[in-house]
Design brief:
By secondary structure, this protein is α/β, with parallel strands linked by helices. It is built from nine helices and nine strands. It folds into two domains: 143 residues, Periplasmic binding protein-like II (D-Maltodextrin-Binding Protein, domain 2); 103 residues, D-Maltodextrin-Binding Protein, domain 2 (3-Layer(aba) Sandwich), CATH 3.40.190.10. Helices cover 32% and strands 12% of the residues. It is elongated.
Length: 266
């Protein structure tokens, strides 16, 4: 199972290991240091630091240094890669682990599994989420599912029926138009434009029997698919039922970036 064939609607954040580390006490007869690097909010930082402390207590002579960075995580990671000074353990995501793995920026973990790396309890399918071209380049932190929420109080106020499990994409778009018109507010839309989220597109493609990527790692759809009029982005935006592109560009969370390794990455 390759990364591109991961279960739809589920994704795994992954830790890529750039240098080997041992889990036996005898391996750290002398003082050793382990550097970790990740992104996320205060809660993830608190939990990650707690795990670092727990790991350090189990390994005599080991000191674990952790660094969290959200603002320019990828830029700094690539800089560390180029300088060959990357952290021993760093966080990746499903859309980047294949790139880093295929450029030899991560250490394959296969030789450690069942020995210094005990991940038997994770389950084969979860472990394989971080397997690229047959090699294991990381360990999944967990799984999550794409979901959508609606404002029940607002729909009740507007006397509009809430969507349910049988609502189609086309019906969703019609409902967004209905909400926008019924609300009668400036700068208010019945839906956010989901076209910037790859997992929204992936969910829509799956409903049509297609995939974001084929098992061979190629695009699993054509350029005509997202513009067929049933995906949330084109449908709702064209009907003035979703926040327009100009409005989204003014939002910090609406920005996108191309993430790739520097040319001189190891």
């Amino acid at each position: 199972m390759s990364l591109h064939r991961r279960t739809l609607l589920k994704s795994a954040a992954a830790f890529g290991v750039a240098a080997p580390f041992m889990s036996s006490g005898s391996a750290f007869a002398q003082e050793a240091k382990l550097r970790t690097y990740w992104w996320g909010g205060q809660d993830r930082q608190r939990r990650t630091e707690a795990v670092n402390d727990l790991f350090a207590k189990k390994i005599p002579g080991l000191t674990v240094f952790g660094e969290s960075n959200s603002a320019d995580y990828w830029q700094k990671l690539n800089t560390m890669m180029g300088a060959r000074n990357v952290s021993d353990v760093f966080q990746l995501e499903p859309s980047t682990i294949s790139d880093y793995g295929r450029r030899n920026a991560c250490l394959p973990l296969d030789g450690m599994v069942g020995k210094t790396l005990d991940i038997e309890g994770f389950g084969k399918n979860i472990v394989d989420l971080c397997r690229i071209d047959g090699k294991l380049y990381g360990v999944a932190l967990g799984l999550n599912a794409f979901s959508m929420f609606y404002n029940a109080d607002l729909l009740k106020e507007l006397n509009i029926a809430a969507p349910n499990m049988t609502t189609t994409w086309a019906q969703y778009a019609d409902k967004a138009v209905e909400i926008t018109k019924a609300a009668k507010k400036d700068n208010f839309w019945g839906s956010v434009d989901g076209s910037r989220y790859n997992y929204a597109l992936e969910s829509w493609l799956h409903s049509k029997g297609k995939l974001l990527y084929s098992p061979e790692g190629k695009l699993g759809f054509t350029e005509d698919d997202p513009s067929s009029g049933t995906h949330t982005g084109p449908t709702c935006a064209n009907a003035a039922a979703a926040s327009p592109l100009m409005f989204r560009r003014s939002m910090p969370w609406a920005s996108t970036a191309t993430r790739s390794l520097p040319a001189n990455a190891p």
